[in-house]
Amino acid sequence: MLHNTKSTWGWLAKTLHWVGALMIIILLAHGWWMTHMTPRPERLANYVWHSALGFDLLALTVLRLLWRWLNPVPDLPSDSKPWERVSAHGVHVGLYVLIFVASLAGWVTANTTRTPITRDLFGLAFPNIASGVDRSVRNIFEESHMMLAYVLGVVVLVHVAGALRHHLLKHNDVLRRMTWEG
Q1: What pTM was estimated for this model as a whole?
Q2: DSSP codes joined into one string, 127-143
C-alpha cells in the first residue's frame, strides 16, 4: 500500500524513513571519520562527498515532510500514556528540526570552502547560499554543524531506544509497522 493509514505506514513513508535513517548514519560516521582520521590531502574529496550526501538528505527530508503532511500519521497505541505521546512527538519534531538546522549549517560550510561545494550525489546543483562569508563566520557554521550533528546522533539513539522499548518491552506494533513485516 502506497499511502499511510491511521494504523500503518505506507511503503513510500517506510522507504523514505529507512533511506533517510541510513543516510544519517552514514553522514554521522563519515563526518566523524573525515574530520578525525582522514589525512589532510584527502579531506577535500571527503568534504565534497559528505556535502553531496547532505544535500540529498535535506531534499529527502523535504519530500518526507510533504508526504507526512499529505497522509495520515498512524495513531500511537491506545494504551500510550500522555508522557509517551509528548515524548514521541518531541523526538520526531527534534529529529526534523535537527536535520534541517544541521543541514543548513553544513550547506553554508560547504558553500564557503575555497571551491564552493554546490552539487549533490546526482550532480544536481544546489544554490550557493553563503558566498563571501568571512573565515571566522564560516568557522562558526562549521563548528555549529558538528555540534548539531552530535546532538542529532543522540536524538537518533533516543528514537531507536523508544522504538525498541515499544517492540521488546511493550510488545506492540509501533516498530513493526515501520518495517515491511507489519
Answers
A1: 0.93
A2: ----TT--HHHHHHHHH
Measure the CA angle with vertex 161, ends 92 and 87; round to 5°: 40
**C-alpha to C-alpha distance for 73 and 156, rounded to whole angstroms:** 20
Residue type, 84: E
Query: What is the C-alpha to C-alpha distance for residues 108 and 129, in angstroms, rounded to an integer?
Result: 6
Q: Give tens-digit pLDDT for 31-80.
A: 999 999 888 788 889 999 999 999 999 999 999 999 999 999 999 999 99
- CA 140, CA 145: separation in Å to the nearest integer? 8
Helices (H), the chain: 11-36, 43-70, 82-111, 135-164
- Between CA 156 and CA 99 the distance in angstroms is 11
Burial group, residue 78, by CB count within 10 angstroms (0-12, 13-18, 19+): exposed
pLDDT in tens, 114-127: 889 999 999 999 99
For residue 121 the three cell numbers come to 550525489
Written as one letter, the residue type at 87 is S
Strand partners, 125: 119
